[in-house]
Design a protein that fits this description.
303 residues, alpha+beta, Extracellular Endonuclease, Chain A, seven-stranded antiparallel sheet, two-stranded antiparallel ribbon
């Protein structure tokens, strides 16, 4: 016969269970509030855009320039559209913005503008990987979560892009900007693409970049000591140049494997990356321009 009075251990177990459930509920509620706030802000900006568009049409004397001009949304050109049916918490850091996914404990995407002037920065690399204090404590990935995992701490925003600011350099070493990458990819094809982006920033004056993990299938490998971090099957990167008269965009997909991968093999259209990820990139430029440059891919235009 079961005892009528619960033991101290029983009470403590129940209290721990309730505490865990409460933490998950608060975390989920916080994300939902953040999503609603961002959506409301976008709706306000959309209304402003429509008002501005009416004014522009009333005063415009040139249609050709209107076809290539970026939409004046007040949002950064590099930011993708909001994700649907995917957990995301938008986090602003110095030099970049990220969307964090609490289910995978990885970013959904990381976005930033890289200018020719920023590429000329001379700060030394930080190398201190820290938990991101902007995230709930129960989703703050640590350096130790990757130790002896067999995977590199792969930057999404590379440290070499953040040499222009000590704060930006420190922020890019937050673990929210990191994903599990094979060493072959991290030190090979991915690094080659990162270097190419810095070269393109110099020649174009500025480029807008978004990158992140790609998950395929229902089951994924995980790593982690205190948290479970999903190992992506691959990674994407999309790059935009708005140099007047030379506007263009290109996408890349790299498998998270030990195979050697070249830019020629991985280059594709932004439309293809959108189909692969379910994301909507470069939503803050003119629709006609977006449709044109996202449907074509020419690596020769970038070299």
């Amino acid at each position: 016969m079961a005892p009528l009075v619960e033991t101290t251990d029983d009470v403590l177990d129940k209290a721990a269970h309730y505490a865990d459930n409460t933490a998950d509920f608060v975390d989920d509620l916080s994300d939902r509030v953040g999503e609603a706030t961002e959506q409301l802000a976008q709706q306000v900006e959309t209304i402003k855009d429509k008002v501005a568009s009416v004014k522009d049409k009333a005063t415009s004397t040139s249609t050709s320039s209107a076809q290539t001009a970026p939409v004046s949304t007040g949002r950064k050109l590099e930011l993708p559209g909001r994700m649907k049916r995917t957990p995301e918490r938008i986090v602003e850091h110095t030099g970049f913005t990220l969307s964090f996914n609490r289910e995978h404990n990885n970013p959904n995407w990381v976005a930033w503008e890289l200018t020719a002037q920023e590429v000329s920065g001379s700060l030394q690399r930080n190398d201190d990987f820290d938990p991101d204090p902007s995230l709930p404590e129960n989703h703050q990935v640590t350096h130790a979560d990757y130790t002896k995992s067999g995977y590199d701490r792969g930057h999404m925003v590379p440290a070499a892009d953040m040499k222009w600011s000590r704060e930006a350099m420190n922020d890019c070493f937050y673990m929210s900007n990191i994903c599990p990458q094979t060493h072959t990819l991290n030190a090979g094809g991915w690094e080659t693409l990162e270097s190419a982006c810095r070269r393109w920033a110099k020649q174009e004056g500025a480029v807008y970049i978004v990158c992140g993990p790609v998950y395929k299938g229902a089951k994924h490998k995980t790593i982690g000591k205190d948290l479970k971090i999903t190992v992506p099957e691959g990674f994407f990167k999309v790059v935009l140049s708005m140099r007047e008269g030379k506007e263009k965009a290109i996408g890349f997909y790299y498998a998270n494997s030990n195979a050697k991968q070249t830019m020629e093999q991985t280059a594709t259209t932004v439309d293809e990356i959108e189909a692969l990820t379910g994301m909507d990139f470069f939503v803050n430029i003119n629709d006609k321009l977006e449709e044109r440059i996202e449907s074509t891919c020419s690596l020769k235009q970038w070299k």
